[in-house]
């Protein structure tokens, strides 16, 4: 927004403001109800069995997908964009990951573990995690097909041909790596099932900062930028 137009809003009496707020409250209640219904539908999605026990490089040695659950029955995987030949993690994924550290303990209390997965080497991931001041589990999938199987890593041929499947459709995705989230559950027999994945704007629900921005008059204030999130930097790179 320009400085001259950013706060050109109607100013009303207290009574009229309350009327407007009550009108909006009704819509917020409708949205909350619809969101609850959608969340239930998401939880009611059918499962698919994972028959391949992928092996990942972790700070505690090689671990299988089953072991990434860390004793819990539910696992959330954040697909963090960090390619094998990259020197740093994606700025936007870093923005999202800044939300993870404080919540892992709370998730653990509800039988949920959270882990980030990238194709970069474990050394790169650990060095970048230290730089960012994070402590959540972050593992390397370089030696397996996990990223490509969950449609967050693409070959150059897939990109050039427009056949990189992202967000459930073929596209000419502009990068070899993409963000996403996948959810898994493990039963008492140790069998692992994939219950949900989402990508693109579906990831907004993980970012508390964006929800706070949506409350203020300027909102996300991205409409005049060359692309969404053009303003985002790694948190140690802001002036």
From TrEMBL:
InterPro entries referenced in this protein's UniProt entry, alphabetically: DUF899_thioredox, Thioredoxin-like_sf
Domain of life: Bacteria
UniProt xrefs under Pfam families: DUF899 (PF05988)
Name assigned to this protein: DUF899 domain-containing protein
Naturally occurring in which organism (per UniProt): Vibrio paucivorans
Lineage: Bacteria, Pseudomonadati, Pseudomonadota, Gammaproteobacteria, Vibrionales
């Amino acid at each position: 927004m320009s400085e001259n137009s950013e706060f050109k809003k109607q100013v009303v009496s207290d009574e009229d403001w309350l009327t407007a707020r009550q009108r909006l409250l009704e819509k917020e209640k409708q949205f909350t109800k619809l969101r609850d219904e959608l969340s239930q539908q998401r939880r009611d999605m059918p499962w698919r069995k994972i028959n391949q026990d992928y092996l990942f490089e972790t700070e505690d040695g090689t671990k299988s997908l089953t072991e990434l659950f860390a004793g819990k029955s539910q696992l959330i995987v954040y697909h963090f964009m960090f390619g094998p030949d990259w020197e740093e993690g994606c700025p936007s994924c870093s923005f999202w990951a800044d939300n993870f550290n404080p919540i892992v303990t709370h998730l653990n209390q509800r039988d949920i573990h959270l882990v980030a997965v990238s194709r970069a080497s474990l050394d790169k991931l650990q060095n970048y995690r230290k730089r960012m001041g994070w402590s959540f589990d972050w593992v390397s999938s370089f030696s397996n097909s996990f990223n490509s199987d969950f449609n967050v890593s693409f070959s150059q041929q897939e990109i050039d041909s427009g056949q990189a499947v992202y967000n459930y459709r073929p596209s000419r995705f502009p990068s070899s790596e993409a963000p996403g989230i996948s959810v898994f559950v493990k039963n008492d027999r140790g069998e692992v099932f994939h219950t949900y994945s989402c990508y693109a704007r579906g990831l907004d629900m993980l970012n508390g900062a964006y929800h706070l921005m949506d409350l203020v008059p300027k909102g996300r204030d991205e409409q005049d930028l060359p692309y969404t999130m053009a303003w985002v930097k790694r948190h140690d790179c802001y002036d």
